[in-house]
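Hey, quick one: can you model this chain's 3D structure?
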Amino acid sequence: MKTSSISARSSRLSRLAGGVAFALVAATAALSIPVQAHHSFSIFDTSKTRVFTGVVTRVNPDVNHLQIFFAVMNDERTNVNRDAKNQPIVWAVEMAGSAQAAQQGITVNAFAPGTVISVALHPLRDGTPGGNREGSMFKCPAKTPPKPGKHCDSVEGNQAFGNGPLPTPTS
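Sure thing. Here's the predicted structure for all 171 residues.
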């Protein structure tokens, strides 16, 4: 084989490899855009902070964002609020991933159904009953709900998850 023929083949292979590399980089960039968008907090209204006391209904220990679902308690702290169909009004609070939440003591076992919690959150902008946790969260001792109009942080023997008091509600 002639040297010029080998050189031409080598040049074509280099161009082909360069094109494949460019396509791989472009595909990786295109696929990473939805992943980055997932971590946007624009779905939450950070200008509002709501504080709830409720009864845990379930915990979703997702790798990306642990969620605690809870039925909101009435102001008297004797029952949960219900909708027009007499179903409990359930909210979801989204937190860090399960591993990070577990480092704070927030696990499926620590928040079994029936546990009374108080949490502040930035609500979803679309009005869906859910939001992103803001600040500390408190767990009431078993079978000891707070007094009317109060939260778990006021109950003797409460357990705090995070540093500081419950944030002040803005709405």
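One thing worth noting: The beta strands are 50-61, 66-72, 90-94, 116-123, 130-139, 159-161.
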